[in-house]
Amino acid sequence: MGPKERKERERKERQELILSAAAEIMKEEGIDNISVRKIASRIEYSPAIIYHYFKDKDEIISHLMKKGYQKILDGLSSALDPKDKPEEKLKKLTQRYIEVSLQMSDEYRTVQLNSSPEVIEHTASLFKGASVKKPALKVLAQCLRELYKDNDIDDSSIELTAQIIAASTFGLIIRLIMEKDLVTEEQKSNLIEHFIKVTVNGVVPGNL
Amino acid sequence: MGPKERKERERKERQELILSAAAEIMKEEGIDNISVRKIASRIEYSPAIIYHYFKDKDEIISHLMKKGYQKILDGLSSALDPKDKPEEKLKKLTQRYIEVSLQMSDEYRTVQLNSSPEVIEHTASLFKGASVKKPALKVLAQCLRELYKDNDIDDSSIELTAQIIAASTFGLIIRLIMEKDLVTEEQKSNLIEHFIKVTVNGVVPGNL
DNA sequence: TATAATATTAAACGGTGTTAAATTTGTTGA
DNA sequence: TCAACAAATTTAACACCGTTTAATATTATA
Fold first, then answer.
1. Residues A172, B171: contact at Cβ < 8 Å?
2. Residue B119 — pLDDT band, cuts 50, 70, 90?
């Protein structure tokens, strides 16, 4: 309520202004064409002002990443139906993840392939312990735990499996995005269907 | 033998000079730090000369891609032992592909993630018919054909499977490269081992 | 209202890819 | 051998880029 808070709020508003300008540019011209100068001119300020609200350009990009990543996670939760069997859950989850990612292919690509250390920290999924720190992996691991409830499988094995499913799915999605002009819709849905079949078969109890 | 041929040869030599300078920079400073001016200064010419031998910087990058891609393929063939059973072949092939790719991670990343249309044409693997046009997929599909020799599986299914293995493996490799600072050697080999197990289990006859 | 803090800008630095025109170098034919 | 032509190479510029420093304008505070 004091002026301190207002200041803080105004500062955030300006940051949002900058971020949304950057997001606009990303949508219109792609991630690589975001430039500090373009952002500045779009919000009708001088380029230098950007550095009053962000450390550097990378920090702006990082913010865009985080938002994109969150978007994927949000679209995921609605795919879980408690009534489903574990195997079915796994299929639906994977299917949904692929669908949501393909719907926002530009953002997905940007988020997942950006190689700045700060962003990688947010997208990394292969390090030990990722299945408890990464929401998407967490739900996946939970799904696998149900799948293996009658088997004697240690947790590190489940984590590995979750990470592998994530990495494989990531690979399929990125390739589908990159080759979108070369792959027909039919081929695409064949691939997705087949992928889910193969992946689930690969991790189903008894095969491990 | 006429001067025409010599001219042609000399031109190629200069192109090679430029390319190897670019490759050096890529090795030392990473793909993103290749610049026309740096190449020029390294070969002790003025920047403009580059454009006498290449259309633009992208063309230079494209050449680096093609070479990198070839390198992967070359390292692959030696992994095939005719005495192995199909399942074993598949495992070794995948293992080798991952190893070779990780050994040249910068190049792999560059080759596989470059999004210029010209390069995508060389790396694409999901379009219908890819398994006969792409050497790496061809050997993979052949491997699968052996694996399914006693089963009644149509060829389009084999192609789909090959493409899926390729895309999944691609995903694992890219993530391992991107997260190399976060993943320990132990975790890495666990992942690779587990990945091969899961993948092979997923495509083994009877599970499909 | 004066002072201190904050917001904003102008201007520059060093970097980038690329191009047009001028210049040097090399080749060829008379 | 020399002039004419063609090829190779450079100079210089254009239009961008990210970033920093110092000066200026604006706002808040005492």
1. yes
2. low
Closest to B107 in 3D by CA, of B184, B200, B23? B23
Smallest Cβ–Cβ distance between A127 and the set B168, B170, B187 belongs to: B187
* Chain C bases having any atom below 7 Å from a protein CB: 6-12, 15-21, 27-28
Token reading at B43: 């070969």
Residues of A whose CB is below 8 A from B121: 182
Q: What is the per-residue pLDDT for A68?
A: 82
Q: Rounded to the nearest 10 degrees, how much is the dihedral formed by the CA atoms of A81, A82, A87, A89?
A: 30
Judge: B183–A120 Cβ closer than 8 Å, yes or no. no
Which CATH architecture fits A1-54? Orthogonal Bundle (1.10)
Q: B164 vs A198: CB contact, 8 Å cut-off?
A: yes
pTM of the full predicted structure? 0.81
pLDDT class of B2 with cuts at 50, 70, 90: very low
Question: Tell me, which fold does domain B65-203 have in CATH?
Answer: Tetracycline Repressor; domain 2 (1.10.357)
What are the structural domain ranges in chain B? 1-54, 65-203
Q: Give the DSSP per-residue string, chain A.
A: --HHHHHHHHHHHHHHHHHHHHHHHHHHH-GGG--HHHHHHHTTS-GGGHHHHSSSHHHHHHHHHHHHHHHHHHHHHTT--TTS-HHHHHHHHHHHHHHHHHHTHHHHHHHHH---HHHHHHH---STTHHHH-HHHHHHHHHHHHHTTTS---HHHHHHHHHHHHHHHHHHHHHHHHTTTTS-HHHHHHHHHHHHHHHHHHHSTT--
Q: Where is B51: in which H helix or E strand?
A: helix B50-53
Do the Cβ atoms of A116 and A69 come closer than 8 Å?
Answer: no
